[in-house]
């Protein structure tokens, strides 16, 4: 069992930290909004007033924050992780950020004697709550092996993808697939509804065949009820599509369908739906199809 400092207790981070407590780890959490530490404390963890307090005695530090600037903000500087964690600690970053940010973090951490893994996750809020996340990991294999007992408290598919930055590259590909799949589902739902078909029956049979997917399984209720409580926000998927677009450009990969999906997510954000679940792409398709009240 490890002493863990957990930085970032939002929609994903909070249930992940709670699952670590349930697995027997000692977890001290910090969040920019202190009230968000309450569920962790209720589960048996503890709250820290500062990042330094959260990480000072930790064997493992976990970060789960929105984007590259937030990772840099919590990692660097006199009040950040690297200046306050003990040498030899392992820093696992579950945030979805650019591969280069992960590479830079690993290089800077090495100067402090800190080991780093980039370990972004997939599975959304439900996967975090259920402890069944898919975790794609970049970094040294020995550090990955050492981290497995911690990662297994949060996920069920845990794969070492290569050196630093590899986890983030795979996560970018994941977000590309999810975006295209969401848009395909949104278009299919709109088509089915306008055709007068029993939508629930149609989605159930589709999900049992080749058209089935984790996206359709996880988002089926959103599509049926036209409710978009955030499990994964449009704002975050918009950020991730920027990452995959830039990374693809850097390696010379052409993503024509991905580019369209990125623009549709950008359109959802421009409509003011940034805090909605990304399944709100359905509303965008409905409006394009003439439903002004969607």
Automatic annotation (TrEMBL):
Question: Where is each 6-phosphogluconate dehydrogenase NADP-binding domain found?
Answer: 3-162
Keywords recorded for this protein, A-Z: NAD, Oxidoreductase
PROSITE patterns for the chain? 3_HYDROXYISOBUT_DH
As recorded in UniProt, its EC number(s) are 1.1.1.60
Name all 3-hydroxyisobutyrate dehydrogenase-like NAD-binding domain ranges: 165-283
Gene3D superfamilies per UniProt: N-(1-d-carboxylethyl)-l-norvaline Dehydrogenase, domain 2, NAD(P)-binding Rossmann-like Domain
A molecular-function term among this protein's GO annotations:
2-hydroxy-3-oxopropionate reductase activity
Which InterPro entries does the UniProt record give? 3-OH-isobutyrate_DH-rel_CS, 6-PGluconate_DH-like_C_sf, 6PGD_dom2, 6PGDH_NADP-bd, HIBADH-like_NADP-bd, HIBADH-related, NAD(P)-bd_dom_sf, Tartro_sem_red
Q: What family does the Swiss-Prot or TrEMBL record give for this protein? A: Belongs to the HIBADH-related family.
For this entry, the protein name equals 2-hydroxy-3-oxopropionate reductase
What organism, scientifically named, is this protein from?
Streptomyces cavernicola
| Organism ancestry | Bacteria, Bacillati, Actinomycetota, Actinomycetes, Kitasatosporales
């Amino acid at each position: 069992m490890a002493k863990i400092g957990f930085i970032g207790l939002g929609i994903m981070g909070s249930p992940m930290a709670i699952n670590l407590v349930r697995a027997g780890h000692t977890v001290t959490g910090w969040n920019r909004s202190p009230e968000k530490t309450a569920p962790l404390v209720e589960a048996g963890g503890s709250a820290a007033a500062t990042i330094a307090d959260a990480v000072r005695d930790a064997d493992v530090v976990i970060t789960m924050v929105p984007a590259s600037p937030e990772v840099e903000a919590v990692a660097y500087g006199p009040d950040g992780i690297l200046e306050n964690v003990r040498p030899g600690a392992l820093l696992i970053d579950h945030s979805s950020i650019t591969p280069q940010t992960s590479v830079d973090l690993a290089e800077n951490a090495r100067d402090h004697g800190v080991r780093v893994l980039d370990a972004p996750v997939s599975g959304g809020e439900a996967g975090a709550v259920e402890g069944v996340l898919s975790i794609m990991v970049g970094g040294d294999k020995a550090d990955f092996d050492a981290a497995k007992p911690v990662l297994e408290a949060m996920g069920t598919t845990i794969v070492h993808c290569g050196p630093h930055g590899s986890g983030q590259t795979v996560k970018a590909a994941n977000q590309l697939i999810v975006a295209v799949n969401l848009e395909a589902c949104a278009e299919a739902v709109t088509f089915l509804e306008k055709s007068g078909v029993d939508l629930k029956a149609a989605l159930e049979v589709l999900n049992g065949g080749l058209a089935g997917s984790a996206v359709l399984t996880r988002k089926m209720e959103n599509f049926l009820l036209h409710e978009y409580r955030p499990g994964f926000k449009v704002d975050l998927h918009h950020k991730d599509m920027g990452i995959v677009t830039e990374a693809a450009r850097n390696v010379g990969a052409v993503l024509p369908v991905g580019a369209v999906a990125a623009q549709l997510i950008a359109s959802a954000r421009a409509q003011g739906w940034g805090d909605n679940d990304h399944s709100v792409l359905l509303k965008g398709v409905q409006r394009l199809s003439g439903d002004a009240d969607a």
